[in-house]
């Protein structure tokens, strides 16, 4: 598969996008540094993958639909597929993936999946548009997984919120949800330390906030992240890694007690024939 890096700019923002996965490689605001991390496979082999048609991992990497078993790796196949550029102008960069004979072997739906990048002021917006061209309802999940650059120990950073809240953290065991939850109380900010991620990502379903900012403690703001209609959010990193991920999700991984039937899987969106689902998040610098 040929990998191409596309360059696009609008206003004060310049981005680089790989045609494989429609994946962002860099995002620069004005003359500033790249907000995304520089990929180092010692830590992770991705930068900002787009997740479709599932988010997270299926039990045994498979599901059952209409009395057939289908196999699919974690976070779905779209992140490893070549997208086509269908729109590129001063306002919009749109990349598209459509169903084919290969996709039907793991996902038996006639889909169109567009990843759209646009700019408003110093903010990059990422839109997902999913269309069902089939004759039956289509089940899907979708999400983003951008890794933002940090320099030095995680303990130098914190997340800041516009509100105080108490939320349930859904706990993960072996890539699946264990069914256990842990209450987390956040009074405006969350100090980041490696120990927070001993049990994998911090996951909040139905987050009680729509904006979070990444700061260096006692220092400058790195970025603002906005999502007004997410089903869940994941915060994730690895020990010693020079990145921190803020992940907007519309769907999530299987739980240990899930049946494996796609029709029974929680977090899936049901799209009627001939209709489109849309989802959006954005990041950059707000005043």
Explain how this protein is built.
The radius of gyration is 18 Å and the shape is globular. The protein is built from 1 helix and 22 strands. The longest helix has 4 residues, at 101-104. The chain folds into 2 domains: 5-147 and 253-259 and 271-284, Beta-galactosidase, Chain A, domain 5, CATH 2.70.98; 150-245, no CATH class. It is mainly beta. The mean pLDDT is 97. The protein has one helix at 101-104, and strands at 5-10, 13-18, 23-29, 50-51, 62-65, 68-71, 84-88, 92-98, 111-120, 123-132, 138-140, 142-144, 147-149, 157-173, 176-191, 202-205, 211-216, 221-226, 232-236, 243-250, 269-271, 276-284. Strands 7-8-9-10-22-18-17-14-15 form a 9-stranded antiparallel beta sheet, with no helix packed on it.
Question: Short summary of the structure?
Answer:
This protein is an all-beta fold and 287 residues long.
Please provide the ordered H/E string of secondary-structure elements: EEEEEEEEHEEEEEEEEEEEEEE
- Total strands: 22
Name given to the CATH architecture of the largest domain:
Distorted Sandwich
Helix vs. strand class: mainly beta
Task: Bin the helical content.
Answer: under 10%
**Percent of residues in β-strands:** over 45%
**Please, what is the average pLDDT?**
97
Outline the low-pLDDT stretches.
Answer: none
Give the distance, in angstroms, between the N- and C-terminal Cα atoms: 41 Å
Largest sheet: 9 strands, antiparallel
CATH topology annotation of the largest domain = Beta-galactosidase, Chain A, domain 5
**Large-scale geometry:** globular
């Amino acid at each position: 598969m040929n990998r191409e890096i596309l360059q696009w700019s609008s206003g004060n923002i310049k981005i680089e996008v790989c045609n494989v996965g429609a994946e962002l490689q860099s995002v620069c605001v004005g003359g500033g540094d790249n907000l995304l991390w520089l990929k180092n496979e010692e830590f992770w082999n991705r930068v900002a993958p787009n997740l479709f048609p599932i988010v997270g991992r299926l039990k045994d990497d498979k599901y059952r639909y209409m009395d057939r078993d289908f196999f699919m790796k974690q976070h779905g196949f779209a992140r490893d597929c070549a997208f086509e550029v269908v729109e590129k102008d001063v306002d919009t960069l749109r990349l598209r993936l459509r169903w084919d004979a290969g996709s039907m072997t793991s996902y038996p739906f006639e889909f169109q999946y567009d990843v759209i990048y646009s700019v408003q002021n110093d903010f990059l917006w990422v839109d997902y548009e999913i269309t069902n061209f089939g004759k039956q309802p289509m089940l899907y999940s979708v999400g983003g997984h951008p890794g933002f650059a940090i320099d030095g120990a995680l303990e130098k950073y914190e997340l800041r919120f516009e509100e105080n809240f108490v939320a349930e953290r859904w706990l993960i065991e072996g890539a699946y949800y264990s069914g256990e939850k842990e209450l987390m109380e956040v009074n405006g900010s969350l100090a980041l330390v490696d120990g927070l991620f001993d049990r994998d990502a911090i996951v909040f379903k139905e987050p009680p906030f729509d904006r979070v900012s990444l700061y260096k403690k006692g220092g400058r703001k790195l970025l603002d992240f906005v999502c007004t209609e997410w089903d869940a959010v994941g915060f994730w990193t690895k020990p010693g890694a020079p990145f921190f991920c803020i992940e907007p999700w519309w769907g999530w991984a299987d739980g240990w007690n899930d049946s494996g039937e796609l029709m029974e899987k929680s977090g899936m969106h049901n799209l009627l024939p001939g209709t489109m689902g849309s989802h959006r998040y954005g990041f950059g610098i707000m005043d």
